[in-house]
Batch of 3 targets.
Target 1
Amino acid sequence: DGTFTHDYIGGRKYNFLFDHPIWFRNHLEKHMDDLSLLTVDRNYATFAQEVYHIGARFFPPAGYELALEKTKKQYDISFLGTYGGNIGNYLEELLQKEKKEQRLLYYWIKRMRKNLDETPEKALREVMQICGNQMSSEEYLELFEKNRDLIYAMAHSYRRKVIQELLKAGLEVHVFGTSWERCPLKKYLNLIIHNEVIGDASLEVYAQSRISLNVMTWHKDAFTERIANAMLQKSVVVSDTSKYLQENFTDGEDILLFNLRDYRRLPKRVKTLLKNPERMKDIAENGYRRAKEYHTWDKRAEQLLQVIEEDSERKYKELWDNSR
């Protein structure tokens, strides 16, 4: 009859979104009562509030420490992400669309490449204005949702560029999973492909890595579980930057940050770091201490209980005010 089973359960429901809210449009437009969203990116919380009118808050993921004895650092650089193709694959699909939509999406891609710190939703709105497209909010969301794969296409394209630059510089990069078997970067002999790892096995890889590479999935104001887990295994995290990382970590002290537009400079910084084991150890230790203090799942559990308490108090106050 259109009602949700969850509506028969008393209390607020919390939905942890690890991706952009546009991926969950159907779920969020027709949602259960008392729904709150927890997002990995502060921009995602804002988008959900403005577009879906749902209470949302930034609630970064975390990690946990695997109890390991002294683990040998056998990998210089590891990357525990998939190979997802590149923007070229998306451009081929783009040629199948209507001319008007082709033009709009072409300029959207161009805008995102030029403004790498900008959110995809803002870039799309800006391009629509430039192209003179007068769309309703519903039409805008339809267009965004239909072409949401572009977010991943952009992220995977830059992921490939970053890793290729490291490989071209002669650095050995260890990747995991079958997706890399179809990657053009296989031509580089210093791309070492391993079997897929999940769960505790992935934590063991972080513990065995001098450097753990992270490339955001086009999150612009976020923190990821990959960063927390790597730090908690005392691996130096090298990541493209985000507003949250800039505010909460210090480049060269507890993390190594780079801007996507400057990815060609990354190999030199990584080589310099690998030649200085003591500095690497200091950065790894600083990152570990920071993650241990602020970014474990135990900490997040405490914070979630606090969130639930605050929301309950707010709800009771609203009920009281409305009954007076």
Target 2
Amino acid sequence: MLFNSVLQALYFCKPFREKVLEYKAKNKRSKETLLSCLADLFYSIVTQKRKVGTIAPKKFIARLRKEKVEFDNYMQQDAHEFLNFLINHINEIIIGEQGNKKDCPSSPTWINEIFQGILTSETRCLNCETVTSKDEDFFDLSIDVDQNTSITSCLRNFSSTETLCSDNKFKCDTCRSYQEAHKRMRVKRLPNILALHLKRFKFVEQYNRHIKVSHRVVFPLELRLFNTSDDAVNPDRLYDLVAVVIHCGSGPNRGHYISIVKSHGFWLIFDDDVVDKIDPATIEDFYGLTTDIQKSSETGYILFYQSRDAVS
């Protein structure tokens, strides 16, 4: 189940887990929300981790289906859509609760502090050389994948320069007219937890349907970003891989999700209620295929990297 795989991955993102448990401790009598249900679930895992058996997230899923009608069915769901909804919805809950407190109506939430980074879009007019920058926040980065490449290469392509020309010219305020320009996206502020979504599902006109792109993409245990802006606050930040949500199957409308996580120096694989210890070298099995991209495969889909200097 995709809900299990994403929740298991998030649980092993230590800053997130600790904030959820802290919320549980501080809000014992709060009304039921998706966040309170998640806090109860995490608390149950922490307090019952030495006991035999598994904990089914029934209360959480029941609440989720009330909050988001798209998840209230038995159709194949997308793990990235679920993650995106969950993080944003939790953030909205926290903001709403902050709004009830007069002392901090607009302070950043702990979701912002953990997941939020800043992208800057830089557009250089090729006529006057003026650079126009525009910032935007993100909770995760969705990146295109190519065959036999790496996460670092995918991130470089994400920030590659695009030429705006012909019908797509840039309106330069300095020139006061439309001009050819170079545009690129770079990371201005790196988050504590970097969530990377590999765009493995795309529509192909040749087949007239969405297919799974099972290209081999290497994701290292350690990661440093090289697509940062010149004014980035922490450009040399080093990340460690802590969790991966994996899609198993041949297409977007069929398959299964599992997760691999790092806990106390060991790597574990979660397949719903089955948990096994794996060797770090086994992670290579989830890079993808070097052959036909439509074959059934087990491929990394969402990667969670935790900064070494993240406040726990």
Target 3
Amino acid sequence: MEKQISWQQLERSVRTVAEAKFGGTARAEDIAGVKCDCVIHLSDGSVVIIEISKEKSLDKLRQDVSKFNTIRPFFIQQNIFPKCFFVTLGSPTPALTAAGQASHVQVYSLSQFFNFILGLGTYLALRQKQAFGSAIDLYSGAPDENKYVKVEYVSDSGVPYTPEKIAGELRRGRTVVLIGDYGTGKSRCVKEIFASLIANEGREFMHPIAINLRDNWGLKRAQELITRHFTDLGLGELVPDVLKTAFSSANIYLLDGFDEVGAQTWSDDPTKLVDIRKQSLVGIKDLIQRSNG
């Protein structure tokens, strides 16, 4: 059954990402006698106005879009042309999008708005095509595209888990540690968890970010891991916006390859080896401690 999001959750989600994108405080305001769901006054004197709706009726949505025609003259008198957005919970119809364009209002579904703000929709599509850790073809090095053979993972207390069940734990904010020898399928499990999270992303509004740790050896800060990860995917232009919400509860991090990170430098001195391994995980520790997802 599809999860129902409350009006308060919808409004809070939109305000949070809008504040991160535009760099101002988002709050409800009465403008020219019209109650606005989200108004952001920017330091350069410009204004962003966002109306939010769970309604599906085209007539009701058109009424909401027309509110901007009342609000806009108030700002134009002050030589301010506001940026206007209308966000619906579901996908807007072509007719509603056209009505918005006629009024210089950008119309988005909630998922589309998040992608506009953060670009994570682009990330999810591209990341799914890349290799997950050591889940690769041994001969070509290409990502493992073989059909997944179902495996049951077992907790210390003997409780069985599937990738879907693990994904559910992550969505509830729990931390899951998957332990196994090299080659036992941990990376392929991460790939399946990522796919499961994507399948629910449009309803849960939680975004998985899957990082291959072996590509990030020696980094000391969480921001450095995230920057390299997105840059390596060719998405460097998304980094400034992604970093603004990197540690929010909306992001679920899938970190794969702890053993590969620790093995990249070696010493026959046990004491020095412990310190080497500790230092190699400094950036990862920073990411885990700072993340609220």
